[in-house]
Amino acid sequence: WKTPSDMPKVTVYEADLMAAVLNIIDNAVHWLAISSTKPRVLRIEAISSKKWVRIRLSNNGPLIDPLFQKNLFNPGFTLKPEGSGLGLAIAREAMKASKGNVVFDEEADETTFVVSMQRA
Predict the structure, then answer these.
(1) Most buried pick, 11, 81, 93, 114, via CB within 10 A?
(2) d(CA 45, CA 1)
(3) The pTM is what?
(4) Which stretch of DSSP H or E encloses residue 92?
């Protein structure tokens, strides 16, 4: 674990990173709001390796059914009654524009998305 002051610099467009992280947080806030789990937790962690800096965004709201996981980034796919199905598709495309990525961590104990950026 590194503190923010120790984190290496990354190559990313600020708008792309904001689009990715804000769409993931928006989804987490929605699902936490309807969750009966207390306390509701949204966890954000930054980790780095030789090539990547990754932001893990986890929440303890409802888990995503494995049947739906393969469709999470498909435009138009949504599990929210009022959703457009564009948030995660936008998040992934934005990060790809910055030579990064967004993935769903299907092995995590909580609902977790990982935003990856190349080190500068």
Answers:
(1) 114
(2) 9
(3) 0.92
(4) helix 87-97
